[in-house]
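Known limitations

Files may contain more than one protein. Parsers should not assume a single record per file. Below, a two-record file is shown to illustrate correct handling: read the sequence, read the C-alpha cell line, then continue until end of file.
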Amino acid sequence: MLSPVAKLRVLHVSMECVPFAKVGGMADVVGALPGALREIGVEGAVLLPYYPQVYAGDPGPEIATFDIGIGGYVHHVRIRNPEPYVFLVDLPAAFDR
C-alpha cells in the first residue's frame, strides 16, 4: 500500500496516441488512460515517437525542447502540452521513414 505522502507517476510509452497518431485501438487507450488515472490521483505522461509526417502541422504549444544523448548522437525531445503531457522523441534514424 502506498503511503498517503507518495505520489504515483506513470510514463505511458507507445507508438501511437490520439490525437497525434492513430492506427488502431491502442491509440484510444493510451490517449484516455492518463486522464482516467488522474481521477484516482496518479500523475501520467505519454512518450511517443516524433513522426515528421504527423507533426507537419501545429501539434500544440511547445513547453520546452532539450537534447538527449543516444548512441553518441544528440537528438531532440519535444514536449507538448495537451492533456496529458506528451513527450515526443525526435530520433530520425528510427522514425523518419
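...continuing to the second record:
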Amino acid sequence: MNEHSAASRSVDILMVEDNPADVELAIEALHGAQIQSNIHIVDDGVRALEYLRRDGEYRDEPRPSLILLDLNLPRKDGREVLAELKNDDDLKSIPVVVLTTSDADEDVLKSYDLHCNCYVTKPYDFEDFVGVIKAIEGFWLSVVKLPVKVRTLA
C-alpha cells in the first residue's frame, strides 16, 4: 500500500465500553491519527451483538474492522460477547482487542481461550491510557492488515 492510500483509508472501530470517560479518552487519543478511524460506541454487551449482527437500529451500520471490548459490561458481559462473536461464522474474523481494567490471570486466560486477538489492561493514569490507545492504533491500524469482508456469490 502506498502512502497516499494509507492516509486516505478509513477504518471503522466498534468500541464496546460503558465508561463515558474511557470513551472520551479513546476518541481523543485516536483524533488526528494517521489512519482515519470512525469510532462507533455501544455501552453494553447486548447492544454490541445487535450492532455486529446489524439488528434493529444498527441495520445500516458498517461492519467494524476492529473491536475494542471491555469485559465488565451491563446486560451481557464482554466474555459472553466474545464467545458469541467468535462462534459466529460471519463475525469471527473481526479482530477483538480486550481493553479492560482487569489484570486477573483468569480473565486473561479466558479471553484468549475465547479467541481474543490481544488483551490489554487499561492504565488508570490519563497519559498512560492515551498512550495505550495510540499503541493499539499504531499496531492494529497501521501495521496489521485487517480482514475485509468479501462477498461470495451464492
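Parsers that stop after the first record will miss the second one. For reference, the second record is described as follows. The two ends are 30 Å apart (CA to CA).
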